[in-house]
What we know:
By secondary structure, the protein is an alpha/beta fold. It has helices spanning about 10-20, 30-35, 55-60, 85-95, 115-120, 130, 135-140, 195-200, 205-220, 230-235, 240-250, 255-260, 270-280, 290-300, 320-330; strands spanning about 25, 45, 75-80, 100-105, 140-150, 160-165, 170-175, 185-190, 225-230, 285-290, 305-310. The strands form two sheets. The chain has a seven-stranded mixed β-sheet with strand order 5-6-7-9-8-10-11, sandwiched between helices. Strands 3-2-1-4 form a four-stranded antiparallel β-sheet. Helix 11 (about 240-250) packs across helix 12 (about 255-260). It binds guanosine-5'-triphosphate and zinc ion (ZN). Zinc ion binds near residues 194, 205 and 207.
Amino acid sequence: MTAEGVDAAALARLGGIAGTAPSLLVTARRASVLHLAAPGPHGVRLTLPDGLTVERLRLLADPAAGDAAPVPPGTSVEPLAADSGAGASVILAKVARLLPATLAAPCPVPALDAADWARARDLTAVAAEDVLAHHETAARALRPVGEARVPLEGAEDTRVVAFRPVDGGIEHLAIVIGRPDPAGPVLARIHSECFTGDLLGSLRCDCGEQLRGAIQAIAAEGAGVLLYLAQEGRGIGLVNKLRAYSLQDGGLDTVEANEQLGFDDDERIYSPAAEILRHLGFERVRLMTNNPRKVSALARHRLEVVERVPHTFPANAYNLGYLRAKARRSGHLF
Ligand SMILES: Nc1nc2c(ncn2[C@@H]2O[C@H](COP(=O)(O)OP(=O)(O)OP(=O)(O)O)[C@@H](O)[C@H]2O)c(=O)[nH]1
Ligand SMILES: [Zn+2]
């Protein structure tokens, strides 16, 4: 069960099905916030000496519930293995854009008919390895599923091509301006969705300017592609980004806020971007970005970044601290 969704009845039900008291699973980031020594890279399982209550697990998992509660004395703290079902449950919570914390209780499931066992209890059985492979499986399954001409202000010769995994799931968009030549390096922007910046014109970040600036710059050159990736909030989702904003209003920087919530500073993956570029026939790009991690991520996915094209816009009173934190903490080049 996800820590975020649980109430007292659900907690009792899980304990009843398992026959043991549930443990709380948190990421290594959240474990550090809770001052747990050497939690290991894949998170920890916390088993409290006198069991979990909803209030206690909220204080351990959710910074909005209050300052991180000290872990009670006598709590067993076990590092999670990379390929464990427990670790997979935390990844599943991330995929659902919830807080990355779950409740787990080993259940006496008969090995051969786990699905039947689960169905009889109104549960869903999911194999840990499927969850662990989810991001890569979804990226490999991306296909163009719809496209249309969408003339944009200042870039009238534009097509929007939507990509989606064959078995459903979240869409990413390719905005193809002009007729980029697959033989040459294509001018490209890989833009991570930002509802507040892109749509509302938020001044907390530079996303809106980067989005419109990229379209203008590509149109000025005559051709190129902008990928609009569904990974809001550096991959933590819009709701968690709003939570992170609220923590930043309390004095944390953008990286610390992510960590309080249990996330890495940047949870994005770039295999979907690489798959889409390859699908469109592009293997060499001139990438408009200030983020060196994007350049190395594309290279890891066998796309050649022949040039990094700086993509900077003037700061304002609200985003100055954010831009400075990105430079200082995450190595962005301004
Ligand atoms: N978690 C989190 N995400 C944020 C925050 N501010 C903006 N974002 C998200 O960050 C993403 C944009 O990433 P940035 O780090 O600004 O820039 P970048 O894409 O890495 O680098 P550039 O290519 O140079 O723009 C968008 O998905 C935004 O929603 C924040 O304070 N916390
Ligand atoms: Zn933004």
